[in-house]
């Protein structure tokens, strides 16, 4: 067993892709995973798989844009397991398009899920971690948090914001036993690109996604950050496919 064994880890956006794969890996290493997403039927299938393999899992329907729902999943973790060791703010959406396409509803959805969702995760988890005197936030950004690409201005803006918020959180929680990690995946196999409605962006994405990482590559990076001794803060990891 690794030091992951027995950790209580809340994961947002665990119904597919990176979140789902991370939940499976952490549960296989003995973590208690508390998993949230809107598609609860997908969480049920995942939970049943994890339990079949002897893992510990609790599911909770979760829309990260609703602060009360984010608070509720943290409360579920606390009441079931008595503490929260880590919150993985992973939920995200990526309906890409050029700015001139004026897909304002899609811009707002990205801002709501990718930025407000992460802030809700912090707002819900931080008071608990401060009281405990320990905890670990793992925020999922993107290589789009470092460089803007065509049709991705708003998506990248949300990920730059996640990077800035994560850095600020690390500075402000110094000396409180709280660790803060930013994980920035490169192109990874998942359902993320399926929400793109804009034809130009779909074409660009086809080319962009020619070389992808399996989601396990990101899950392993998350495990790496989590399993470090408490005096090690893995601040930022960028994981890209070999090209
Ligand atoms: P997926 O689309 O496979 O997974 C996204 C997850 O987010 C789903 O479980 C979805 O569940 C959840 N989600 C979306 N909206 C909400 C919401 N309002 N409330 C709660 N959960 C929500 O994509 P990935 O696994 O790739 O994405 C995970 C993270 O990784 C995202 O933050 C993404 O930006 C980031 N990332 C991904 C990259 C890639 O190439 N795949 C590259 C860089 C970063 P549901 O719909 O059931 O709510």
From TrEMBL:
Any GO MF annotation of the entry: oxidoreductase activity, acting on the CH-OH group of donors, NAD or NADP as acceptor
Name of this protein: SDR family oxidoreductase
Recorded family membership: Belongs to the short-chain dehydrogenases/reductases (SDR) family.
Domain Ketoreductase positions: 7-186
Pfam families according to UniProt: adh_short (PF00106)
Superkingdom as given in the UniProt entry: Bacteria
Species whose genome carries this gene: Psychrobacillus lasiicapitis
Keywords noted in UniProt: Oxidoreductase
